[in-house]
Amino acid sequence: MSTQTDATLVEPPLAPVRVGVVDDEPMARTFVTRILASAPEIEVVAEAADGAGALELVRTQSPDVLLLDLRMPGMDGLDTLRELRRAHKRPAVVVLTTFHADEAVATALNLGATGFLLKHTDPTELVRAVRLAARGDSVLDPALTKELMGHLATHHLDRIGASSQVARLSNRLRDVLRLIGAGRSNAEIAEDLRLSESTVRGYVSEILAATGCANRVTAAVLAQRSGLLG
Gene3D superfamilies in the record, alphabetically (predicted)? Predict the structure, then answer.
């Protein structure tokens, strides 16, 4: 027998992930927008052609995820990231680039970008990346190279300093940091350590605050530099 109580057990549908797309090339914006618009539970709320437009997009549309091209005329992606650090509510930023690894990408990650994707990434990977970023996970293109990790490492402590930094963390936080370094998502870390995903998110926030890392990607570099991964 159906009752009013039964109805309360049905969970409401999840709100769609709100996405902004920023690229100075109209064709690139159209391509990305069409891919995301065809995916369930994703809504492209606005597009912009430069950094100034990106800041206005964030201010007026409050996207959950911003896909941001690095190389644009006027205010480029790096300057946009610097400005977004002052925003009251900033979206997760995923950098779009045609370059596999360079100093600009490393700088973007240190400025707080959630990760990066190559522009020719597979459409299914693009959709997956948006969903991961919306959940607070890092997004790294499979083509991430040792060269990029080297660029990132130059912004961080040497191996001795990194080890000292990590040693100040609790055992539980080191366990989480080790799994971040291994590229695990929050959901995977929660499963491995038998924790709730919300607890893992809290631990990740503690790690970033304690180590001064800008995001999960730079935390992963710290884990590797410290020898935490073996």
Answer: 3.40.50.2300
- Segments of the chain assigned E as strands: 17-22, 42-48, 65-69, 92-97, 115-118, 139-140
Helices (H), 17-116: 26-37, 51-61, 77-84, 103-110
120 with 211, same domain?
no
Six-digit token string for 79: 């300057």
Q: How many residues does the chain have?
A: 230
* Of 38-47, 81-90, 101-110, 130-139, the least confident: 101-110
Q: pLDDT for 183-193, tens place per residue?
A: 788 889 999 99
Radius of gyration of the chain from its Cα atoms, rounded to whole angstroms: 19
Tell me whether residue 140 is in a domain.
Answer: yes
